[in-house]
Design a protein that fits this description.
Strand content: under 5%
Number of strands: 0
Largest sheet: none
Shape: elongated
Number of helices: 5
Structural class: mainly alpha
């Protein structure tokens, strides 16, 4: 149980830092979408290549999608913390564990899809703005990061199914024990 306790502590610290970061990021996103300059040198506003209102709309949608993904990952950390709390109470096959693992899996799969869409649309926009196709594409940025989300999402969906099957088998074993006691 020390491992679960250690993981729970790490997730609580990570969750705390993530909520502080999301609060600061929310202010920066609102400033960048409404193009408000407070003189703090907003890096999001400086790095945007905005030539028309359509570009502003595209950049705003991209920022909001990335922000939503970040919030959903924080929610996944929260759900994993809830699972660990149940594990510490020795409730391994509780229905909330199965449901939380399922939610976490879908969050990471949706994050994978959104991440791929954002990466590939950015790549297409870069290709359309240049006269020639770049010879090198950074493997880490385009392919590796989204695959991590896919793998983690599928892992949590598999864990959800495994815990659901184990819960059913545990319930069947309890029923069989009760039947055996009645026959004796």
């Amino acid at each position: 149980m020390r491992t679960i306790t250690f993981l729970n502590i790490v997730l609580r610290i990570l969750f705390g830092f993530a909520t502080i970061t999301i609060s600061i990021l929310a202010i920066i996103v609102i400033l960048s979408i409404f193009n408000i300059d407070l003189g703090i040198g907003n890096p999001l506003i400086k790095n945007l290549n905005i030539d028309s209102p359509l570009d502003m709309l595209q950049e705003s949608i991209s920022i909001l999608l990335a922000f939503t993904c970040f919030i959903s990952y924080i929610y996944a950390i929260y759900k994993l913390r809830k699972c660990l709390d149940l594990f510490m109470e020795y409730k391994f096959f509780h229905k909330n564990v199965v449901r939380n693992f399922n939610i976490i899996g879908y969050i990471f799969l949706i994050g994978f899809i959104v991440n791929c869409i954002l990466n590939y649309t950015d790549l297409i926009l870069q290709l359309s703005n240049q006269e020639s196709i770049p010879l090198s594409i950074e493997f880490n940025d385009v392919f590796l990061a989204p695959l991590n989300g896919l793998i983690i999402g599928l892992l949590f969906l598999t864990l959800s199914k495994v815990f659901e099957i184990a819960k059913k088998q545990k319930e069947e074993n309890i029923e069989l024990k009760q039947e055996n006691e009645l026959t004796i």
